[in-house]
Specification:
The chain is an alpha+beta fold. The chain is built from eleven helices and 17 strands. It has two domains: about 140 residues, 2-Layer Sandwich (Beta-Lactamase), CATH 3.30.450.40; about 250 residues, Phosphatase 2c, domain 1 (4-Layer Sandwich). One of its GO terms (molecular function) is phosphatase activity.
Length: about 400
């Protein structure tokens, strides 16, 4: 344990004076302190297909397949994996999967030590990556279009988790997106999540996506409720981009009692998954697409649903279900739900469920997607059943059966 403490102390002391491209050498330099020959950082590429080594200049290492290596298994299962003379530990920023750290040692390295060092590496990587382009360049396996650059700059981390809620997302094609974008925030007991699908593609679509996220965050931070938020976004769209629109689904989840409030603005219906099975589609649309509100005098309608502990809500854009293979077959909702249900029943981590979903969409399509394919999975997992002591009923909410 003392060895791990000294290794972490040295990393924390030296990192503030190191540039992002110096971090690999700094991490490798503490290997002798924990009786290791070497330590290498591997980062997941944007497509989450390969783990790419982040090494110091002049040193090379081979990328590892996420689907067919022990390193990849550590990434997908979030569990450390051992091989001859090596140990791979998941590299996590909170619950977001960044990659893995590979430890090489002649002796059997203690996992506790490796986990402590890896946790420190994750924090250093998070703190230093914004000061240079080393990490961004490494994670790109092909050129990224400007529209995608704009969208990725807007997005929060793909995965967020607290003790009782999880939100995780995927976005493809990762190098050429433009119209799809999502956002989330946890404020007190309320988790807010929004998924937008703007019309068009390329720079114009990414400009609409930028407006959607900016206006959504502004409304949320101003303290507007869900209906007022939808009205605000609709007005921004119609005033700044008359004639253009975005479909959207916006939700608020009260993590105390599982109350889910939803506005569906012309978007595919969210799917409620309970006990590993999709049991219903949440009603929608409850509002016109954002930017088209002037066609109706009706205000956005908020649908309310009571979740059960362990329930999941799946949001997706039509680029997922409308992906067509060479035979002209749509990916379809049935295939989508079957894949998600099988992954959840296999008890895969939520981020891995979503990664496999988007890989299946890409495999089905067989070539570059014609539309963005984006999905968000939300899970409510309270430590105890809030209905057990009548807490939810005390605020006048009745559970659904």
């Amino acid at each position: 344990m003392a060895q791990a403490d000294e290794a972490v102390r040295r990393l924390l002391t030296q990192a503030p004076l190191a540039g992002p491209d110096e971090l690999p050498a700094l991490v490798a330099g503490i290997a002798p302190l924990i009786d290791a020959r070497d330590i290498t950082i591997f980062l997941a590429d944007y497509a989450q297909v390969s783990l790419v080594p982040l090494t110091e200049p002049g040193r090379s290492a081979e990328a590892a397949s996420i689907d067919s290596t022990l390193a990849g298994r550590a990434f997908t299962t979030l569990e450390a994996q051992r091989g001859p003379g090596r140990l791979w530990v998941p590299l996590l920023d909170g619950c977001e999967r960044l990659g893995v750290v590979q430890f090489e040692s002649d002796a059997e390295l203690e996992e506790t030590t490796a986990h402590e060092v890896t946790a420190c590496v994750a924090q250093l990587l998070k703190n230093r990556r914004a000061y240079g382009d080393t990490v961004e360049r490494l994670r790109r396996r092909e050129p990224m279009q400007v529209a995608a650059e704009i969208v990725w700059g807007l997005l929060p981390p793909l995965t967020f988790a607290a003790s009782d809620v999880v939100a995780t997302a995927v976005l493809e094609p990762c190098y050429d997106v433009g119209g799809d974008v999502f956002d989330y925030a946890l404020n007190g007991d309320v988790l807010s999540v929004a998924l937008f699908d703007t019309c068009g593609h390329g720079i114009k679509a990414s400009a609409l996506a930028s407006l959607a996220v900016g206006a959504y965050r502004n409304a949320r931070r101003t303290g507007l409720d869900l209906a007022a938020t939808a009205v605000s976004l609709d007005r921004w769209f119609s005033s700044e981009h008359r004639g253009l629109f975005a479909t959207a689904i916006m939700i608020e989840l009260d993590r105390r009692d599982g109350t889910l409030r939803t506005i569906n603005a012309g978007h595919p219906g969210a799917q409620l998954v309970r006990d590993g099975k999709a049991i219903k589609e949440l009603p929608g649309p409850t509002a016109l697409p954002l930017g088209l509100g002037y066609f109706s005098a009706e205000p956005p309608r908020v649908h309310e649903e009571m979740l059960h502990p362990g329930d999941r809500v799946l949001l997706y854009t039509d680029g997922v279900t409308d992906a067509v293979n060479l035979a002209g077959e749509r990916f379809g909702l049935e295939r989508l739900l079957d894949l998600v249900q099988r992954a959840l029943n296999d008890e895969l981590p939520a981020p891995e469920t979503m990664r496999r979903l988007v890989q299946s969409v890409l495999d089905h399509h067989g070539e570059g997607l014609q539309d963005d394919a984006t999905a968000v999975l939300i899970e409510w997992r309270p430590a105890r059943d809030p209905w057990a002591n009548g807490r939810a009923r005390s605020v006048g909410v009745e559970p659904t059966v």
